[in-house]
């Protein structure tokens, strides 16, 4: 135990008199990151229909007024975001509490009492018997003011306040992360709604095409001009296409309800803008010059992890401060009397001054455990911070790769759709001139509709991958505005 107690009186006096805060000072850990993302060069070749939007309001780059409206409504009404904002207020109160602990505390008390004593009490009975004119009624008046102050010589309270500030900043970053999640989820769900609407509309058209095909094949089979197997095949194709309609309708209802929840309103709320079928928004271009180093400044989850590391580091100092004695000053001044008119007169006045010492001198084993636990939590926080950086980079790389691949797929399918559209136009012209049958025209329609279904899904995947990319880059908030808000914690 003696090895744990500071043996040098000069060291102890230096700490006490200089008022240094014990424990390690925090330094932001360095992270080695590449200069650019691996997928940047591939993504830069993408021919986007819209220019690069401002990253803080990236959803406006999709050129869809309804999308802009639902995102704005979600930011104003989403209940998960409201919880995150409330948590920031809660943690801010912890900062104020930690600051207050470093200041003197004072209280004022006043009391006026009337006592009617019982004659059954032996002491009162003896007084009544021995004191002529004994009065069972007594009065008591007291007014006092007291103050205490813990002198933070070892800096434990300052380290606790430092940790509270870091916790507050982490909660702010957590609120921003919740905001970004709401924006991305709203945009993604909106695109899903538009996708399901387009697929449902196409499935209904495919159903009509296949119904007409079954009718014609049935007529031919009835006249012996088509084999029965061809009719059975047409009926099976119709069944497969028809079965997709209720599945798509169910998915659309679920997507609309999920969007309503994100917007903070009752599910199945009527929304004429969403009822009207509009095209899936096209994904805008993405600034590929933004490198991994920018993630450390933009990604709120990384910022939160770094602030949590800073808080854990400060708590090491708070734990180490228990190795040192803690001093306090106390003072009390007041007046106590049994006669109300004598308050604040010299005989009734009282005062107290005290100098206190508290030292966990024989509890260093427990202090050792608390310090080790604080260091262990800091090591965990450091690993969590480094992991968050790696995960953020992986999110961006995955989103960039998916966006590039789906965009390539979409372009290929667009070319195929254009080819089949021309083929369908040729078949229609041949049918009008009597050189092609109605059945050939229906088959051309079916082929075109099948590739349209694939193109719709590829376009949806492209747009949703762009949303994931903007989210992964930390888009959806202004770093400058957040820097101004952060000053609240340091005032």
Can you walk through the features of this model?
By secondary structure, the chain is α+β, with helices and mostly antiparallel strands. It has 2 domains: 9-102 and 154-323 and 364-490, Outer membrane efflux proteins (OEP) (Up-down Bundle); 104-151 and 325-358, Outer membrane efflux proteins (OEP) (Single Sheet), CATH 2.20.200.10. 62% of the residues lie in helices and 10% in strands. The chain contains 13 helices and 4 strands. Strands 1-2-3-4 form a 4-stranded antiparallel sheet, with no helix packed on it. The longest helix is centred in the C-terminal third of the chain and has 69 residues, at 364-432. The chain is elongated, with a radius of gyration of 38 Å. Residues 1-18 and 487-491 have low confidence and may be disordered.
Topology:
Blueprint: H1 9-18, H2 40-44, H3 65-77, H4 79-100, E1 105-116, H5 122-130, E2 137-151, H6 156-222, H7 228-262, H8 272-275, H9 295-298, H10 300-320, E3 326-337, E4 349-358, H11 364-432, H12 438-472, H13 479-486
Antiparallel strand pairs: 1-2, 2-3, 3-4
% residues in beta strands: 5-15%
Order of the strands making up the biggest sheet? 1-2-3-4
Total of helices: 13
Please tell me the overall pLDDT: 86
Structural shape: elongated
- The Rg value, from CA coordinates, equals 38 Å
Segments where pLDDT lies below 50 for 5+ residues?
Answer: 1-18, 487-491
């Amino acid at each position: 135990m003696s090895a744990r107690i500071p043996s040098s009186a000069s060291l102890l006096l230096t700490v006490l008199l200089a008022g240094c805060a014990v424990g390690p000072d925090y330094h932001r850990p360095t992270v080695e990151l590449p200069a650019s993302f691996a997928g940047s060069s591939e993504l830069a070749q993408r021919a986007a229909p819209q220019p690069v939007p401002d990253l803080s309001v990236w959803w406006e780059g999709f050129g869809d007024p309804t999308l802009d409206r639902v995102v704005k409504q979600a930011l104003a009404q989403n209940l998960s975001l409201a919880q995150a904002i409330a948590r920031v207020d809660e943690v801010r109160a912890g900062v104020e509490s930690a600051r207050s602990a470093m200041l003197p505390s004072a209280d004022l008390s006043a009391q006026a009492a009337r006592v009617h004593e019982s004659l059954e009490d032996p002491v009162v009975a003896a007084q009544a018997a021995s004191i002529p004119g004994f009065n069972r009624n007594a009065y008591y008046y007291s007014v006092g003011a007291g103050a205490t102050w813990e002198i933070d010589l070892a800096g434990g309270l300052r380290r606790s306040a430092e940790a509270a500030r870091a916790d507050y900043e982490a909660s702010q970053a957590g609120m921003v992360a919740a905001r970004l999640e709401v924006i991305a989820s709203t945009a993604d769900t909106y695109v899903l709604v538009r996708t399901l609407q387009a697929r449902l509309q196409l499935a209904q058209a495919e159903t009509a095409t296949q119904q007409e095909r079954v009718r014609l094949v049935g007529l031919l089979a009835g006249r012996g001009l088509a084999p029965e197997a061809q009719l059975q095949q047409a009926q099976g194709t119709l069944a497969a296409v028809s079965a997709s309609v209720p599945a798509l309708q169910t998915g659309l209802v679920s997507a609309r309800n999920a969007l309503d929840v994100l917007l903070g309103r009752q599910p199945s709320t009527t929304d004429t803008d969403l009822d009207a079928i509009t095209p899936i928004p096209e994904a805008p271009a993405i600034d590929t010059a933004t490198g991994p180093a920018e993630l450390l400044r933009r990604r709120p989850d990384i910022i939160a992890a770094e602030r949590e590391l800073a808080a854990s580091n400060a708590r090491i100092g708070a734990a180490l401060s228990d190795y040192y004695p803690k001093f306090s000053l106390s003072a009390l001044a007041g007046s106590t009397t049994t006669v109300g008119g004598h308050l604040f007169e010299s005989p009734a006045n009282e005062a107290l001054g005290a100098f206190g010492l508290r030292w966990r001198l024989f509890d260093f084993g427990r202090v050792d455990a608390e310090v080790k636990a604080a260091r262990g939590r800091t090591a965990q926080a450091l690993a969590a911070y480094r992991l968050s950086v790696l995960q953020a980079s992986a999110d961006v790389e995955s989103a960039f790769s998916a966006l590039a691949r789906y965009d390539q797929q979409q372009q290929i399918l667009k070319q195929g759709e254009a080819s089949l559209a021309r083929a369908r136009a040729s078949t229609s012209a041949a049918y009008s001139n009597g050189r092609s049958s109605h059945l050939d025209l229906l088959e051309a329609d079916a082929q075109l509709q099948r590739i349209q279904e694939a193109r719709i899904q590829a376009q949806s995947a492209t747009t949703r991958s762009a949303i994931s990319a903007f989210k992964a880059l930390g888009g959806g908030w202004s770093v400058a505005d957040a820097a101004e808000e952060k000053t609240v914690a340091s005032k």
